[in-house]
Amino acid sequence: TELSNIRNFSIVAHIDHGKSTLADRLIQETNTVATRDMKEQMLDSMDIERERGITIKANTVRIDYRADDGQDYVLNLIDTPGHVDFAYEVSRSMRAVEGSLLVVDSTQGVEAQTLANVYQAIDADHEIVPVLNKIDLPASDLDRVAEQIEDVIGIDASGAIPVSAKTGQGIHETLEAIVQHLPAPKGDPDAPLKAMLVDSWYDAYLGVIVLVRIIDGHLKKGDRIKFMSNNTTHHVDRIGVFKPAMAEIDRLGPGEIGFLTASIKQVRDTRVGDTITHEKHGTTDALPGFKPSQPVVFCGLFPVDSAQFEDLRDAIEKLALNDASFSYEMETSAALGFGFRCGFLGLLHLEVIRDRIEREYDIELITTAPSVIYHVYMRDGSMVELHNPADMPDLTHVDHLEEPRIKATILVPDEYLGDVLKLCQDRRGIQEDLTYAGSRAMVVYDLPLNEVVFDFYDRLKSVTKGYASFDYQMTGYREDFLVKMQILVNDEPVDALSIMVHRDRAEQRGRAMCEKLKDLIPRHMFKIPIQAAIGGRIIARETLAALRKDVTAKCYGGDATRKRKLLDKQKAGKKKMRQFGKVDIPQEAFISALKMD
Ligand code: GDP
Ligand code: MG
């Protein structure tokens, strides 16, 4: 295809503003997929994405479109993830295209992720076409939202297209705007091959599938190619495009987006943002710097049934094949036995992986408290990265600790502002900015990541009845007075419940955890002390009284079914428990005990 007849674009939006639905309509309107094969949300492939209505992996589709000017165009849409955890995936796919549709729900207006994502598009020098979606709804207010786009984002919204992705209204205008307003890609067909590795994933039949954007030159089936970051070479055995099903073609030229396969075994061998060229006569000029995505949140995953450890290893290895941003290593815990310490891009990523292990591999898991990476500066001047509170070095050797901080942007209707400020303040936040974006307040806070990883987002949603939106980025490390707090159950430390906490908050957290555990741990035949401690010092204590009677004793003999039911219930409860010394602790206790409310 001629460069002048190609348009590459992405869709940026806040979650639920209609990105996937719009993509579906664009595919349908152009007959890219026969109507009988349409299913909703064509591009959201994994079950968990469908259920939660979020897009996790970037997906792509090539659309053939005959425009009103009579010419045939190739439109390549890259669908980007819409959640804060995957900001890095958004930023890299942005660099593979020249323009963006900015979708804003015209009943809602600009939200935090609208801002975060559109700034990424602006950073990538995109031409941006605003699309005001959901005009079929009575609450749609086009003027207000267009004005907000101009005020808050600072881009011209006079050409914004009113659309209903639901009814199809405005879809033709959107396709025309893509052709008329977005720039064609540039590239040199005669230069040596230079292609950007946009994404990669594992396919059970084809091995690793690599999504590429050709910058210069041509890529053909049978070529020998080289990944410039690590100089590995491969034989290309397939080239193709997504319509959105895979369709093989012979070659890809400048400006085009498509896939290659080359008998690559693991996703880990393909670095997103890497430059691909030919092994011989290749370019020497790699694309400017890429950074591999780094896990920022760590937690332990242990099987409830220790006999399932090998199954868990198998599941984790398989998932890691398809997800280079997920890291893992074996961990042994005195309390939980064998498991894995895993690293994630954020909490949603953690949840997605944990859910997939439980559902797809049928393994019940105990998840320990999520933790961030602390920098521990030793007296001898060295620095150790602490991924797990259980590994905290002996305090006599430690000089000081630093923790990661984030810049959080929250948009919230005025009436909830007070609650949001209180929440941020309670989480050791420092207010940096407070302005108004239309009728909503926009607050910017500097917060410790460790105060956010656990349940900040849930709390934010609950104090604002779901009306706040949130986005964050990491800013760096800062020293603070952090200590390791241990929980002792029946005088034995339960390492899986150890957490790092600010010294000033330790008593309060310790008391709250002991109280929670007292409710979560069932009574035993003996009295159980539950304590929180820093070093050897007890800072909080609760006592769980002993059980006096047999639970079945109150069903005076006669009712055998009732008795049986109670025993069954007890047994079912037991399955989800782990023994610590002489004490059974239910699985849910590990997460519930850490919730702060
Ligand atoms: P995404 O999170 O941005 O991908 O949003 P989705 O495409 O999943 O849409 C979120 C919800 O809004 C879904 O329930 C859609 O059916 C609905 N939706 C999307 N576009 C429209 C529209 O134009 N009108 C109406 N009424 N609902 C829409
Ligand atoms: Mg979606």
UniProtKB/TrEMBL annotation:
<comment type="function">
    <text>Required for accurate and efficient protein synthesis under certain stress conditions. May act as a fidelity factor of the translation reaction, by catalyzing a one-codon backward translocation of tRNAs on improperly translocated ribosomes. Back-translocation proceeds from a post-translocation (POST) complex to a pre-translocation (PRE) complex, thus giving elongation factor G a second chance to translocate the tRNAs correctly. Binds to ribosomes in a GTP-dependent manner.</text>
</comment>
<dbReference type="InterPro" id="IPR035654">
    <property type="entry name" value="LepA_IV"/>
</dbReference>
<dbReference type="GO" id="GO:0097216">
    <property type="term" value="F:guanosine tetraphosphate binding"/>
</dbReference>
<keyword id="KW-0472">Membrane</keyword>
<feature type="binding site">
    <location>
        <begin position="133"/>
        <end position="136"/>
    </location>
    <ligand>
        <name>GTP</name>
    </ligand>
</feature>
<keyword id="KW-0648">Protein biosynthesis</keyword>
<dbReference type="InterPro" id="IPR038363">
    <property type="entry name" value="LepA_C_sf"/>
</dbReference>
<feature type="domain" description="Tr-type G">
    <location>
        <begin position="4"/>
        <end position="186"/>
    </location>
</feature>
<comment type="similarity">
    <text>Belongs to the GTP-binding elongation factor family. LepA subfamily.</text>
</comment>
<dbReference type="GO" id="GO:0005525">
    <property type="term" value="F:GTP binding"/>
</dbReference>
<dbReference type="GO" id="GO:0003746">
    <property type="term" value="F:translation elongation factor activity"/>
</dbReference>
<dbReference type="InterPro" id="IPR031157">
    <property type="entry name" value="G_TR_CS"/>
</dbReference>
<dbReference type="InterPro" id="IPR000640">
    <property type="entry name" value="EFG_V-like"/>
</dbReference>
<feature type="binding site">
    <location>
        <begin position="16"/>
        <end position="21"/>
    </location>
    <ligand>
        <name>GTP</name>
    </ligand>
</feature>
<comment type="similarity">
    <text>Belongs to the TRAFAC class translation factor GTPase superfamily. Classic translation factor GTPase family. LepA subfamily.</text>
</comment>
<dbReference type="InterPro" id="IPR027417">
    <property type="entry name" value="P-loop_NTPase"/>
</dbReference>
<keyword id="KW-0547">Nucleotide-binding</keyword>
<dbReference type="Pfam" id="PF03144">
    <property type="entry name" value="GTP_EFTU_D2"/>
</dbReference>
<dbReference type="InterPro" id="IPR005225">
    <property type="entry name" value="Small_GTP-bd"/>
</dbReference>
<dbReference type="InterPro" id="IPR004161">
    <property type="entry name" value="EFTu-like_2"/>
</dbReference>
<dbReference type="Pfam" id="PF06421">
    <property type="entry name" value="LepA_C"/>
</dbReference>
<dbReference type="InterPro" id="IPR006297">
    <property type="entry name" value="EF-4"/>
</dbReference>
<dbReference type="InterPro" id="IPR013842">
    <property type="entry name" value="LepA_CTD"/>
</dbReference>
<keyword id="KW-0342">GTP-binding</keyword>
<dbReference type="InterPro" id="IPR035647">
    <property type="entry name" value="EFG_III/V"/>
</dbReference>
<keyword id="KW-0378">Hydrolase</keyword>
<dbReference type="Pfam" id="PF00009">
    <property type="entry name" value="GTP_EFTU"/>
</dbReference>
<keyword id="KW-0251">Elongation factor</keyword>
<dbReference type="GO" id="GO:0003924">
    <property type="term" value="F:GTPase activity"/>
</dbReference>
<protein>
    <recommendedName>
        <fullName>Elongation factor 4</fullName>
        <ecNumber>3.6.5.n1</ecNumber>
    </recommendedName>
</protein>
<dbReference type="Pfam" id="PF00679">
    <property type="entry name" value="EFG_C"/>
</dbReference>
<dbReference type="GO" id="GO:0045727">
    <property type="term" value="P:positive regulation of translation"/>
</dbReference>
<dbReference type="InterPro" id="IPR000795">
    <property type="entry name" value="T_Tr_GTP-bd_dom"/>
</dbReference>
<dbReference type="GO" id="GO:0005886">
    <property type="term" value="C:plasma membrane"/>
</dbReference>
<keyword id="KW-1003">Cell membrane</keyword>
<dbReference type="GO" id="GO:0043022">
    <property type="term" value="F:ribosome binding"/>
</dbReference>
